[in-house]
C-alpha cells in the first residue's frame, strides 16, 4: 500500500509516476474521499472535546448542587451526533482503504518507460548460447523421448498444465532443488525455512495478491477459507506481519522451497504445451527483510544470488530491468533473469527479483524501530526466485541435449545424482 501521507500531499505527482505503469489514478475521487474523511475527522474531534467539556461541567454542577438539565440535554445531542458521525467516518475510511488497496506501487525512478515485454531494458548477459549440429528440440519432445515427462498421464489425473515426471528426469528435478538450497544457505547465508502451503486471506492481502488478484488463486471451500500459495513469498514474507523488529534483527534472509499453485487465469492459449506455465510447480524462493536505506543495494545482491545458480549450471542468460508497464502490482523495481532456450530460440524468464520497498510492509504492519528517528517505521521487503525448479530443468534439457537423445547433467549437479553424467532414453 502506498504511503497515505505522500498521496495526500502530492496526489498529482503520484498520478504522474503511476502513468509509467499504465495506471490512471483517480485524483478527483481520492481528493473527494480525503476531503470527506478530513471533514468528518475534524468534526468528530471537535465533538469529542465538547463531550469532555460538557462532562466536566455536569460533574461540577452536581458537586455544587446545581441544575444539570441543560448540559445533560446538550450531552445527549453531542452523543447522538457523534454516533452518527462516527458511522459516516468509518464508512468513508473503509471506502478510502478499499480504493488505496487497488493502487499499485510507485515505480522506482530508475525503472524504464514502456508497457510491454519488448520494452524491458537489457542490463547484462552471461554465457555463450550453445550451437548444435542438429536441430535442437524443445523440452517437451526431449522429455517424452527420455520417458521422463508424461503430460498425458498428468491430464488424466488432473487436466491441462500439469506434468508427471519419471526416472532420472524426476531425479534431476529433485537434485536441482537440493543444489539450490545448499548454495543459498552455505554460500549466501540464507536460513532455510519451511512453511505451510495453505495460507489465510490476511497473508495474501499482506503481499498484495488480494483483493485485486483473487481470481488467480486456488481457494478451499468450507467454513474456514484457505488459499494454496502462489509462491513461498506469501508465507515467508508474512512471518514478520504485525511485528516490530529491532535494528539488530535486520537483515532477515530466508530461503524456502515449496510447490506453487496458480490458476494462470489470464494466460489462455499461452504455453499450453510443456512445463513453462503450469498450475503446479516447484520453486526455491529468496526473501529478505531489510532497513529501507539498504534495500536497493540488497536488490542487486539478491539478483546476483539467483544468477549464481545459473552460472554454476552453465546456462546462458540475460538480466533485464522491467519497464513500468510490465511491473508486478506490488513491485517498485524488478529484474528478470531470462535463460536461453534453444528449442524456442529465445530467452525466457526463470526468475524475478523485486524490491517492494514499504508497499507490502504497510499492508502487513511490519515495522522496525529506527533508533535515529526514535520511531517505528515500515521495513522494506524483497524477494526473488532462486530459481524456479521446473523452468531450470527445462533449460538444462534444452541446452544440454545431444543428438543421440540423451541429456548431459551439468558437472555441478553430478554429486547430487550419484555421479550420473547423462540422462538417457529408458
What does this structure look like?
With 426 residues, the chain is α+β, with helices and mostly antiparallel strands. The chain has twelve helices and 17 strands. The strands form five sheets. It has an eight-stranded mixed sheet. Strands 7-13-14 form a three-stranded mixed sheet, with no helix packed on it. A hairpin with a 4-residue loop joins strand 11 and strand 12. The relative contact order is 0.14. The mean pLDDT is 96.
List its salient traits.
426 residues; alpha+beta; eight-stranded mixed sheet; 12 helices; 38% helix
Summary, kept brief:
By secondary structure, the protein is an alpha+beta fold.
Mean pLDDT: 96
Q: What's the helix-strand series?
A: HHHHEHEHEHEEHEHEEEHEEEHEEEHEE
Arrangement of strands in the largest sheet: 1-10-11-12-15-9-8-4
Percent strand: 15-25%
**How far is it from the N-terminal to the C-terminal residue, by CA?**
52 Å
Can you tell me the overall shape? Answer: elongated
Largest sheet: 8 strands, mixed
- Specify Rg, calculated over alpha carbons: 27 Å
Q: Low-confidence stretches at least 5 residues in length (pLDDT < 50)?
A: none
Amino acid at each position: 500500500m502506498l504511503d497515505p501521507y505522500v498521496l495526500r500531499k502530492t496526489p498529482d505527482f503520484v498520478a504522474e509516476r503511476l502513468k509509467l505503469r499504465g495506471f490512471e489514478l483517480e485524483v478527483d475521487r481520492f481528493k473527494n474521499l480525503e476531503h470527506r474523511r478530513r471533514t468528518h475527522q475534524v468534526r468528530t474531534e471537535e465533538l469529542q472535546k465538547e463531550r469532555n467539556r460538557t462532562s466536566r461541567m455536569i460533574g461540577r454542577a452536581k458537586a455544587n448542587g446545581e441544575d444539570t438539565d441543560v448540559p445533560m440535554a446538550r450531552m445527549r445531542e453531542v452523543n447522538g451526533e457523534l454516533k452518527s458521525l462516527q458511522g459516516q467516518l468509518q464508512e468513508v475510511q473503509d471506502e478510502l482503504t478499499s480504493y488505496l488497496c487497488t493502487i499499485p506501487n510507485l515505480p522506482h525512478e530508475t525503472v524504464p518507460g514502456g508497457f510491454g515485454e519488448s520494452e524491458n531494458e537489457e542490463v547484462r548477459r552471461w554465457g555463450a548460447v550453445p550451437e548444435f549440429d542438429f536441430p535442437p528440440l524443445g523440452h517437451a519432445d526431449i522429455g517424452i523421448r527420455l520417458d521422463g515427462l508424461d503430460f498425458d498421464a498428468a491430464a488424466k489425473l488432473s487436466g491441462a498444465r500439469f506434468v508427471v515426471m519419471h526416472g532420472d528426469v524426476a531425479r534431476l528435478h529433485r537434485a536441482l532443488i537440493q543444489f539450490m538450497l545448499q548454495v543459498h544457505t552455505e554460500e549466501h547465508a540464507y536460513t532455510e525455512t519451511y512453511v505451510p502451503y495453505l495460507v489465510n486471506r490476511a497473508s495474501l492481502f499482506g503481499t498484495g495478491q488480494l483483493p485485486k488478484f483473487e481470481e488467480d488463486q486456488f481457494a478451499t471451500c468450507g467454513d474456514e477459507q484457505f488459499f494454496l500459495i502462489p509462491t513461498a513469498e506469501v508465507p515467508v514474507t508474512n512471518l514478520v506481519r504485525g511485528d516490530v523488529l529491532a535494528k539488530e534483527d535486520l537483515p532477515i534472509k530466508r530461503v524456502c522451497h515449496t510447490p506453487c499453485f496458480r490458476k494462470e487465469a489470464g494466460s489462455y492459449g499461452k504455453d499450453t504445451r510443456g512445463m513453462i506455465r503450469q498450475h503446479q510447480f516447484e520453486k526455491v524462493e529468496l526473501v529478505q527483510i531489510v532497513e529501507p536505506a539498504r534495500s536497493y543495494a540488497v536488490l542487486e545482491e539478491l539478483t546476483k544470488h539467483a544468477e549464481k545458480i545459473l552460472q554454476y549450471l552453465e546456462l546462458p542468460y540475460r538480466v533485464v530491468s522491467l519497464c513500468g508497464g510490465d511491473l508486478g502490482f506490488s513491485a517498485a523495481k524488478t529484474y528478470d533473469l531470462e535463460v536461453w532456450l534453444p528449442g524456442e530460440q529465445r530467452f525466457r524468464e526463470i526468475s524475478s527479483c523485486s524490491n517492494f520497498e514499504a508497499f507490502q510492509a504497510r499492508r502487513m504492519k511490519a515495522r522496525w524501530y529506527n533508533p535515529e528517528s526514535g520511531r517505528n517505521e515500515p521495513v522494506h521487503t524483497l524477494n526473488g526466485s532462486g530459481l524456479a525448479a521446473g523452468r531450470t530443468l527445462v533449460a538444462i534439457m534444452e541446452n544440454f541435449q545431444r543428438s543421440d537423445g540423451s541429456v548431459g547433467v551439468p558437472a555441478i549437479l553430478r554429486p547430487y545424482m550419484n555421479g550420473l553424467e547423462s540422462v538417457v532414453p529408458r
